[in-house]
């Protein structure tokens, strides 16, 4: 478990205590759940926030459908839709809390960990604004987008299947600890 800054600990968010002490190995997976506290440890920062229960649907089209394998070869994912959980962070200014960024450029791919030390998600990026059903642009201070680890693991397994002697292999299985 990474070290958690004092201002990011669960009690700062009124969510009990940090169960897993820093320095312990991350050994199991969990799920992203509405109302729970989560920690994101990235290249640029360590931030915490609360999963608010909203699922954002991302429809990957055009050039966004392409990814690259470890050898630099382009892989077309075809029509692909994912559902990302929104995680909100906040900071205190004076006597009130304001929402702040859950992540910065370079933090994509960060693990999202709960207070029990379970790896629950993978941070993708931030939602900075969106259009409401009434076609009104809503500005939102960088709510974090994270995919549940169950979906990440399922996606890895599906995308690592190979055709061997006319049959598909089961694909890679992700386990902890690495």
From TrEMBL:
Protein name: Uncharacterized protein
Organism (species): Aspergillus avenaceus
């Amino acid at each position: 478990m990474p070290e958690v800054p004092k201002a990011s600990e669960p009690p700062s968010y009124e969510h009990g205590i940090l169960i897993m002490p820093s320095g312990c190995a991350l050994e199991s997976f969990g799920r992203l759940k509405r109302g729970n506290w989560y920690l994101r440890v990235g290249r640029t920062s360590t931030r915490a926030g609360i999963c608010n229960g909203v699922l954002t649907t991302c429809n990957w089209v055009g050039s966004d459908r392409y990814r690259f394998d470890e050898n630099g070869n382009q892989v077309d994912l075809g029509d692909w839709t994912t559902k990302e959980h929104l995680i909100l962070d906040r900071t205190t200014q004076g006597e009130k809390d304001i929402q702040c960024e859950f992540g910065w450029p370079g933090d994509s791919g960060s693990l999202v960990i709960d207070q029990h030390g379970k790896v629950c998600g993978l941070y993708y990026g931030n939602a900075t604004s969106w259009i409401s059903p009434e076609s009104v642009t809503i500005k939102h201070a960088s709510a974090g987008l994270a995919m549940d680890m169950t979906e990440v693991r399922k996606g890895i397994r599906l995308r690592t299947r190979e055709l061997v002697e006319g049959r598909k292999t089961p694909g890679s299985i992700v386990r902890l600890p690495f």
